Protein 1
Amino acid sequence: MLSCVYFQNKNRFQAVSRSGVPGPKDTLLRCIQGHSGQIAGQIKSRLAHTQILRAEQCPTLAHYTKTELLPKIIGYNMPGLLPGGRTADEPSQEGRRSHVHMSKQLVSATGVIPEKFRRRDVDCCIRLDSKKLLDDGCELSLSDADVVLADVDLPLPYIELVQLLKWPQLTMYCRPKDTDMAVREDQSVDCSQCGEIHELDTWVCLRCWEPMTIAAIHDREGFLPKTERKA
Ligand SMILES: [Zn+2]
């Protein structure tokens, strides 16, 4: 078993020895994170991981996901990010991981996704507001695999930015400043192309991909060759 811990290359397991001589009744092994179901229910995050107390410990907080899941995360009246990658139409947590997993790193300039988040089909980054989360009493912890964990729902007010990772790196959602929020009357926006209702600060329709804000039009036009830009 110790060789498993030693040779795994993704920082999945840890071993600790009381005496320094590994053996029965001396050595403990654990999976660092990613527990699910009943085992997850027995684990106390604040004991299993390092508590994050200040936003400076994780000024960048990014969850990596698939674009196809966005309508269930930031769509109109949707609940945001839920522990274990659960979506709004899957009420049961059974068998699911117990946390939202977040990276302290962004994708590099050359498009390399931080290690541990390189799952198949990951094409989208959701940036979260660590200061607001901590100010509002949300418990964040840092696993020994350098992953930030939250065991509560993270609704839209905590989501700062949603952006595609690959070309054309469109911004899908951008949270406005508090001062802008105060002067608004509408709570939603309809796509002029397909009629789908969205949260007000959604830049691009999650159903038909039509830009819905002036900024989104500029964002998209910037990536098109001059000949293909609208007059
Ligand atoms: Zn649309």
Protein 2
Amino acid sequence: MGAKTDLDRFLGILEAHPKGVSHSEIHDWWPGGGKNRPRMEWVRGTAKNLATQGLIRITSVPSKRGRPATIYQLQSYASVIETQTPGEEIRFENKLFENVEAYLETGRTYRQLKNKFGDGVDSYLHPGAWSNSKTLFKDINKQGEHSFILLPTPQNWVSPIEARDWQYHIPVVNGKMQPYQIIQMPEDVFRMDGRYGQCFGVVPLFDVHYGSNGHRENKFQKYLKWIAKTPGLYIILGGDLMDNALDDGRGMSYDQYIPPQSQLDDMTEMLAPLAHRVLTMFPGNHEWRTYKKTGIDISKILADRLNIPYHTGPVLLNILAGEHKYRIYAQHGFTRPGTKGGQLNSAMKPMKWIDADFFLSGHTHEALVSEDTVLRENAQDGNLAFVPRWTVITQSFMGWLDTYGYRAGYGPVAGGGILLEMFENGERVPSTR
Ligand SMILES: [Fe+2]
């Protein structure tokens, strides 16, 4: 045993006087005399702390002089251990609490509890004595005795969603949401070291096909971990996250090892820790199957659960960061031409009607990048500027064997990944990894 602390002395006095001691009695009985006693604020604070843990009781009684006096009374002879690291406030480890908690995993009668722990147990036999994760139930057994049991409180598995460090706006005109999102990034968004200096990244997560036999779980989990530990990475959720095979002959429901409801629940759970990094989300053809059959949009349910900005189709993101704006036109993609050239052609179509730096899509499970250069007048220096425009078809999280793609005669799908990097100096490039 180490040297006696003030807490030991305080508890010693309480232990020696089971009926309780008043404030002034602590003063009188302090070992070594009143001059050694700690400040009364310490006694009050410590007593309050012990009382909230149910270890002591604080009551007010009228004193002889008629003014109320505070009485401290030890509730149990629990071992109270003081742990203190420099700079931290004193914490108390309550052994009785832990013992009662373990004992109540099985239903116990009041008599059993009293026999085992003494009167001190009373302070634990009301619901307020337990944290939000446990609920105390007071039941009546066959003998008509009260019995107590401590059971886990059902938790909302979605919460808590972390707060975003960016802001967004989706315009609503004449009651209709526009497929457009202005995003204001925080000042310090350029947190990653990239080829051209400091940058932030946008990771497209498309075509996960969770629940399908072909889903590449290792790859997807690696991505989630990589994003979680890398500040400055943001996400676009681009559809076909869930394989969602329906029992109508359209989806191959026998190729699916997890049913759609569980796909939705699991996806919610997997994405919740990263929800605050998702810039936008839209469905793919696989999620849309449910909408076509039932009018219920399961992607919107996922987005609502995770508080993610949501569009039912393609969207233009205008991302404002530092001195520049970075524009991404993102869509799931709905055709799958047989050649890579054909796939790029259809991914480029929106260039006819919208201006952006990246034309991002998925759906084909290929990983393709194509660069075009656009000439633009630069009003700032009077020159012609050569501006790159990138068409990006992003990879999937699907394998090949055992899948529809294999049986339909398609080749093995792309295994790598694509990251859109936005640099502080205004450069913007897709990088493959
Ligand atoms: Fe798709």
